[in-house]
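INPUT
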Amino acid sequence: MDTVLYGVAYYPEYMPYERLDQDIGLMQKAGISVVRIGESSWGLWEPEEGKFEFAWMDRVVDKLHAAGIKIILGTPTYSIPAWLYKKHPEIVVTRLGGQTLYYGLRQNTDLSHPTYRFYCERIIRRLLEHYKNNPDIIGYQIDNETSAAGAANPDVQIGFVNYLKARFKTTDQLNKVWGLNYWGQRLNDWTEVPVRDGIINPGWKLEWERYWQRMTTDFLAWQAAIVNEYKRADQFVTHDFAGPPRSEVNEWDVSKSLDIVAANPYHGTQDEFDGETSSTVGDYVRSLKQSNYLITETNAEAIGWNSKDQMPPYDGQLRLDVYTHVASGANMVEYWHWHSIHYGQETYWKGVLGHDLEPGRAYREVSRTAHELQRIGPEIVNTQRKNQVAILYSNDSLYGINFMKFSDRVDYNTIRRQMYATLYRANIGVDYLLPESTNFSDYKVIVVPPLYVASDALLKRVAEYVNNGGHLVMAFKSGFCNENSTVRWEMAPGPLREAAGFHYQEFSNLRQPLALSGDPFHAGAENKVSDWAEMIIPDTAKPLAFYDHPFFRKYPAITRNQYGKGTLTYEGTVLSDKLQDQVLLGVLQDAGLTGPDQSLPARVRVKHGMNRKGKRLHYYFNYSGDPESFTYAYGAGTDLLTQMPARPKQTITVKAWDAAIIEEN
Amino acid sequence: MDTVLYGVAYYPEYMPYERLDQDIGLMQKAGISVVRIGESSWGLWEPEEGKFEFAWMDRVVDKLHAAGIKIILGTPTYSIPAWLYKKHPEIVVTRLGGQTLYYGLRQNTDLSHPTYRFYCERIIRRLLEHYKNNPDIIGYQIDNETSAAGAANPDVQIGFVNYLKARFKTTDQLNKVWGLNYWGQRLNDWTEVPVRDGIINPGWKLEWERYWQRMTTDFLAWQAAIVNEYKRADQFVTHDFAGPPRSEVNEWDVSKSLDIVAANPYHGTQDEFDGETSSTVGDYVRSLKQSNYLITETNAEAIGWNSKDQMPPYDGQLRLDVYTHVASGANMVEYWHWHSIHYGQETYWKGVLGHDLEPGRAYREVSRTAHELQRIGPEIVNTQRKNQVAILYSNDSLYGINFMKFSDRVDYNTIRRQMYATLYRANIGVDYLLPESTNFSDYKVIVVPPLYVASDALLKRVAEYVNNGGHLVMAFKSGFCNENSTVRWEMAPGPLREAAGFHYQEFSNLRQPLALSGDPFHAGAENKVSDWAEMIIPDTAKPLAFYDHPFFRKYPAITRNQYGKGTLTYEGTVLSDKLQDQVLLGVLQDAGLTGPDQSLPARVRVKHGMNRKGKRLHYYFNYSGDPESFTYAYGAGTDLLTQMPARPKQTITVKAWDAAIIEEN
Amino acid sequence: MDTVLYGVAYYPEYMPYERLDQDIGLMQKAGISVVRIGESSWGLWEPEEGKFEFAWMDRVVDKLHAAGIKIILGTPTYSIPAWLYKKHPEIVVTRLGGQTLYYGLRQNTDLSHPTYRFYCERIIRRLLEHYKNNPDIIGYQIDNETSAAGAANPDVQIGFVNYLKARFKTTDQLNKVWGLNYWGQRLNDWTEVPVRDGIINPGWKLEWERYWQRMTTDFLAWQAAIVNEYKRADQFVTHDFAGPPRSEVNEWDVSKSLDIVAANPYHGTQDEFDGETSSTVGDYVRSLKQSNYLITETNAEAIGWNSKDQMPPYDGQLRLDVYTHVASGANMVEYWHWHSIHYGQETYWKGVLGHDLEPGRAYREVSRTAHELQRIGPEIVNTQRKNQVAILYSNDSLYGINFMKFSDRVDYNTIRRQMYATLYRANIGVDYLLPESTNFSDYKVIVVPPLYVASDALLKRVAEYVNNGGHLVMAFKSGFCNENSTVRWEMAPGPLREAAGFHYQEFSNLRQPLALSGDPFHAGAENKVSDWAEMIIPDTAKPLAFYDHPFFRKYPAITRNQYGKGTLTYEGTVLSDKLQDQVLLGVLQDAGLTGPDQSLPARVRVKHGMNRKGKRLHYYFNYSGDPESFTYAYGAGTDLLTQMPARPKQTITVKAWDAAIIEEN
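OUTPUT
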C-alpha cells in the first residue's frame, strides 16, 4: 500500500431517511479514503429466499466511486435473515446444557451446519459474481468476528467424534490419553462417546475447545476458498478478529487462509486511554503472519450495548490512537462506524456522526487526522518493526488453567497481561510467539506466561532456546501438563527440569500475600507475592528470593539458572506488578536491551520502525492530559507532524494527547 | 361513603379448627366494619370441576351480617385449583426462554388463554349468581394484584403478532419503525415474526411490554364486564393494584374498567416507617381517576415470605399509618389479614391475630383505631386534596432506559423516587400525571423524571405547558427517543430544544462523581453529581452549574431557560439528594409554593385537605419515636383526635408515632 | 480390632504405567496395613454389558496378600460405565425444574430406578461371588458417599406419592396437614398431586426431603442385604458418609443396615488445622451406633477439584490428625488416596504419592505414623468415650428453617456449629443426640440448636429431661412448628411453655446487632446479639439479659427457668461467639462439669477415653506451630508416644503440631 488507509464502516441501509449524497459528501470533505460495506445486510442482499437485490448497494458503490473512496466488501454471513430462521431454525446454536438460542442476536449459527453452509455459499457467490469487476473494491472481508459461538448442536457432537477418530484412531487410545479408567468411564467404541455437556475431564474439554477453534478455522478457510475463485490479483481477503488473542479462535490457523490480517480493537478512552490495548492487539496480529495488518473497526466515539459505558474520547485521543496503530504496523484504520444508529442493540455504539447526523467533535478530529494522513501517510505506511523481545502465548495453557483454576483473582491472561504491560510501560517493543512459531532464535529475551499445557517437543525447543544463549523468563506451572492437559508423571517441571535447574514435588496456594525475605527487589510496599507457591528445590538454579514465612521460607520464590549459553529465570509464584517490573527489567538489562527509552516520562511511550524508504521512524506518544518533555536520543530527523527538525539530545515537548513522529534523515 | 371503612381480609377456610363465632366476635369487639372474602379460594368454591359449593361461605356471610360487618367479595381467579392444573397444565405460564412454571405458586396463568378464561367465567358467574342479592356486599374485587406474569405461551406470541398487525398494519412499517435493516433482520410478512425470546431490539421489547400490560388490562376489563352484568347500583367494582406504580401494569388503562381504585401498599416499619410508601402509593392511585380510593391490603404485623424481614411495627405505627392513608385520600383501610397462617408460603406474613389466634399487641392497636374512626371517620372520610405540584410518570421511559441502562446504581425509578422523596420531605402535596393526562395546566410546577421515551405530541404539550407559564424541572435523557424507543435523528433534546434552550451532540458516563464548580447550591460534602453528563451547549438557557473537571468544565450541568411565560430547569446529570433538594426547592420558591410547612421538624409531615362539609383539614404526623413540637400555622380549629382546640401560632406537640388532625372551624 | 488400621484407597487401574510391585513395596515399607479397592471401577469390572473381568484385580489382591495388607472391597455402583449410560440414559438424575444431568460426573443416578437397581445387583453379586472366600477382605463398603443427588425423575415423583399414601392415607389428611385450603389448592385424590417442582409449601417440601433421605436409606439397606448373603462372620459391611451430618442423608437410619459406620471427613490444613472438623465428624458418627467407627477417607496432601485450595499440611499435621481421630473413637484411618491422579476431575486431590509417584514429604510422615501405630496401636485402639454433654441435632429443623430463613448470615448449622465449637474449644467431650435417641438421661447437659420442627412427643421428652434434673440450653425458634413444619396454633413456644417458663406472641428480626443492657456476661466488644429477637414474656423464667433498645428493652433476650429438678436456659436471639461461650460455660459450671481442662493453653485440646485394658487415656493435642506447656492434671502414667512417665501436676510440653498420649498406670 502507498499510504495509510483511513475510513469507516458504512451502513447507508440503516439511515432513517435518504441522505446518501450528504453522507458521501461529508466523507469526501473529511478526507476519508476507504469504507467497509455489506457485511451486515444479508437480509437486504437476499430479502426473500433466492431473490437477490443489488441495486440498493449499486448506487452507493457508484457514488463512492465518484468520490474516489475505496471499498472493502464483506460477505454477509454473520447475521442471517428472518426468513432463513423461519425456514431453518435448526441452524441456530444449541449451547452445551441444551439451551437453543433464538433469533434476534447475530453470530448465533452453527458454523458447521450443512444447511447454513448451503445458504452462505449461495449468497457469497451471487455477491461476488455481481461485484467482482468493480475496480474500487480493494479487498473482501469474510464473515465478521467469527467464532463457534458455543455451538453444541447434534452435528457438532458428531463432528467432534469424527475429529477424535482422526486424531486418536481408537477409543483405547482415548481411554489412555484422557485416563478414562478414572471413575470407570472407559469407552469400548465410538458409539459410546457421550455428549460433551456433562464432561468434566480436562483433556476432553481441551480437545473440545480445539474442535470449536477448528470449526471457525474451517468455516473461514471455506469462505476464503470461495472468494478466491472470484478475487482479482489486486484484491485481498481478510477477516476481522475480535479483540485478539481471543481464546475461542485460533488466529494462527485462520491467518493461513488470509492475504492480510485485520483486527477490531476497542480501547479505553478518557482517563483510561494509554495506547496499550491498541498496541497489544497490533503486536499480536502483526506476529501472526509477521506482516503489517489492518484495523477494520475501532472506537469512533463512545461505545457500549447500553449507556453505562459511554466514554467519548477527550480531544486528541482519536488522532493519537491512529498513530498508535500505524506505529504498531497497521496500514489502515477504520472506525465502526460512520453514523450512530437510532434503533437496535448498538444504539449507543456511536459513529463518527452522532444521532443528529451532523458533523460534531469526532467528525472534526477525524477530518483533521485524515488530512494529515494525506500528507504523511506515504512516509509512515508499512512501518516495519524489529523487536528483540517476544511473549510466548499458549491458548492451550489458558484453557488448561481455567479448567483447574489456581485463583479467583489471577488466571493465565492476568499474568500474560501483566508481563505485556510491564514491557509496554518500559517501552520495549514486543512480538508474540505461538507454540507453532519456529523463530524463537530471533529474540534475545522470551517471556513465558504459565506454559501449563505443552508437548515435550515444545518444552524441548524452549530448553534449546536457553541452551543456545537465549534469556527466558518463565512463570509458575510451566511444564506441568502435556499437550492433553494431563499432568506429567515425572518430577516437575518435567522436561524443563534441566534448563530450569530445579525440581518440586509440592505446591500450595497462598491464602494471604507473602513478602519476599529482605525485599531483594526493593519493591517496598509492593514486595508481595500471592496465590500460588511452588515448593522449589534447586538442583543447579540460584535462588533470587525466598518467602518470608515459617513453613515456606525454605523454598525459593524466584530462581535463575545458567543453562548452556543462556539463562532461565523462573517465577514460582504470582508477583506484584512492581516485582514483575523489577524481575523483567533485570533480565532485559542483562540482555543489553535497555537504554534511553526507559527514562522517558511515565505517560510517554515510544515505538521504533523503518519506513518503505528505509528511514528510521521514532514515534513518541503522550498519553496524558498535560504536555510532556524529554530528550530525543536518536539520529537527526524531522517531526512529520509539525515538520520541525529534531536533533539528537534536543528536548522535545509533546502536547497533551499528541504525538511526535520523527523520521531520521 | 359516610365514614372510613376499616377492616381485614378474612380467610375462615384457612383456620386449623372451627372458630368462626370466636373470630367474628373478636372483629365486632374491635370495631371492624368491613372484610374482604373469597378471592383466594377457587378450590373451595369449585372443589371439583363443575361442582360448586357455597354453603361453607354462606354461614360466614350470615354471621358477618349478624355482626353488622360489610363485605367485599373477590372473584377467585388468581389461584387455580389443583384439578384444573391436572386437566389443563397448558394454561400455566411459559416464560421467555421456554421455562414453564409448575403448580404451587398462585398468579401463574396465561391471562389470555381461552381455556383459562372459560373456567374463570364459569366460576365468576356462579359466584355472582349466588351472592348478587346479598345486601352486605358493598363491592366486588376482580382478581388480585394481576399482571401478565411473564407469560410467553404460544397464544401470547400469536396475540402479540395480531396486536402488531392492528397497530402497524404492515411489516414494512415494522421494518421502518424498529429499524430492522439493522443486521439485515427485516421481515417480509407476518409469518416471519420470530418469537420474542431472543429479541434485543429496544422498540420491539417496548412494544412487547405494552402488549403484556394490555393483557392485564383486557383481562380485568373482561372480568369487570361480567361482574357488571350482576352488580347492583349500590355496589362497586374494584381491583387491588400491587404497589403501584408497577411497571408491568398500566394502571391508567385498567382504572377505566373500575368504579373505584384500590391498592395494596406494604410499608417499612419500626425505624423505617416514615409514611412515604403509603403516601406515594396514595398520591399515585388517587391521580388515576382523580378521586378517593381504597386500601385493600396493608401490613397488620410483620410481613415476609420467609422470616428474614420480620419487623412488627412499634406501638402507634399501625394507627399512624391509617391516618396517613386517609389524609392521602383513602376511604378504606384493610389489613392483610385477620389471622396469621400456620402453613404455606405466607406463614410469616402475619395477621392482626398471631399464630396463637389470641388478641395481642396488633389487635389492641387495631381496636383502638377502629373505635376512634367510629367517632371521627365521618369528619375525615373523602378528604379532598388540591395540589399545585405534579410528577409526570412515564412507564415507557422506565422500560426504554432499562433496555439500555446508563448506570448499575441509578435508573428511572431512582430518579423518580428521589424527586418524590424531596417533595415529600418538604411537605409539598403532589399529584401524579401520566402521558395520557390532559390537566397539565392544573399545576404550577411539574417535575419530570427522565422522559426518555415520548411522542412528539407529548413533548409539544410539555413545551406548551412551559410556554403558558408553567415551571418545569426535567431530568437528563428527556426527549431522547420517540414513542418507539427509537433515538431521534434531530439535534437533542429534539422537540424540547426550544423550551429547554440548549442542544447537545454528546454525552458521557461519569466513572467517578464530580463536584459542581464553586458549590453553587451550598451542598458541601454532598456537592456531587454522578453517572451521566450531557455535553450541553446553551442556546438561550442560563447555566446554573458547571462540572469541576478539565474536560467537562465547558459544559453546564444544570440549566434554566425562560420560555414564554414559564421556566424549564434541566438537570443534565444525576444529582445528589441534597442537590436535588436545593434545585427543586428553588423552583418551588420561585413559584411561590413554599411557606410554614417547610419549617416543620425533620420527622413531622403535614397534609392538607377538605372534608365533605367543606372544612379544611390539617393532618400532622410525627414519624419518630420522640414527641415533636411546632407552631400551628393555619386557621383556628379542633384536633379531632384529642378534641383539643387549635389556635393559629399555637405550639402543638405530637407524641411519638402519633398525629394531630386539625379540622378548621 | 486389635490395633488401629492405617491405610489408603488404592487405584492401581489409574496408574499411567505398570508399577504394581513398586506401589505395594512402598506401602509395605511405609507400614500401611489396609487398602480400600474397587469402589470406583464398575467400567473395569464389567467393561461391556454382562462381560465381567476380575483378573486385573486378582493380581492386585494376590500381591496385597503377599505383602500382608488387608482389604476393604467396595461395591462399584456410584459411577456407572459409559455403555450403561448409552443404553439407559433414563437412569441419570433429572433435577427439580427439569434439568437432566449428563454423563461425566459420578453419583448422578436415580437410586430408586429399577433399571439402575438391576445392573447394580448383577455387578454386586458377581463381585461378591468372585471374592467372597478371599481371606484378606476384612469388610465391604457399599456404594460411596451416597445421596439421592436431587433426583426428581418420574419414578421418584410416583414413589413420593406412594410414600404419601402410606403415611397420610387420604388426600383429605394431606389437605389438613399441609393446609392446602391456602390459595385453594386442596387435592381431591392422589392423581391430583402435582409434581414437586413448583411446590413452595413448607410441609410438602419437608416431606419430600424425607423421601429423598429414604431413597438413600432404602438403596443402602438393599445393597447391604445383598452383601450380607455373601459376607462371612469375620467381615463387616460399612458405608462411608460424606462429611456427616449431611442434611440430605439420614445417617441414623442408614446405620441400621451397617455393621460399622465409616466417614470421610476432609479438614482444613496449614493455619486452618485445629482438629475441630475431625472431632465433630467423629463425635457424630460415634453417636449413631454409640460405637467406634472407621475413617475411610481423609486428606493425604492438598485437596480440591481445582488448584485454588491447594494447602498441603505443615509437617506434623497428618500424624496429629490420625491421633485426633483415634481419640474420638476411630479404629481406622485411610487416606484418599495412595497416588495423585494425572487426569480427570481430581487431578489436584492429591495422594500420599504426588504426581511424580516418588516418595515425598507426605509419604515420609505416613511412614513415621504407621510405624508408631505398629507399636502403640494396640494400646489406643477401641478408645471408649464417656461424655456428660450432648447436642441434640434435628435435620428436620435445619430444613424447616431453610424453607423460611430468618437471616442470610445465620442458619441452623451456624448455631449448631457455634455451640459445638464453644464446647470443643472448652475441651468438653460431646456426643450427639438425634430425635430418635432414647438416652437423653445419660447426659447432665443437653445443648439444643433451634428445634424448629419437632413433634409434641419429642418436645415432651425434652421437657421431661429437664423435669428429671437435666440442664438444657436451647436456642430460639424451638418448639415453633410441629413435625410437619406447620406453625403451632397455641401460644409459643407450644408444649415447651411450662418447661421454658415463658410465652411470646411476636418476634422481630434485628436489622442491626444490639447490645445486652449492662453487659451482663462481661463480653465487652462482643456484647452483641443479632438477627432475631423473640418478644418473650416470662411466666416463671428469670431473665438473664435484656436488649439495650427503646422498644425491645422490655423483652428478655436470655432466660433461665427452674423446672422440676432441672433448668432450661433459653436464648431468644443469636448470640455472639463470646456470649455463647459465657452462657454455655455458665451452665456447665452449674452442672459441675468444669475443671482443669478448661485452663489449658488456647491451642491445646484434650480428650479422654478408656482403652481395651480398662486403662484411662488422656490425649493432649497441640494444634499450633509453637511448643505449648501445661500442668498434667490426671493420674500417673506414661506418654505412649515418647515413652516418658507422666506424673500428676507435672508440666508437660508438647511440640508444634504434636501430641502426648498418656496412658494411666
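end of record. The longest strand of chain B covers residues 502-514.
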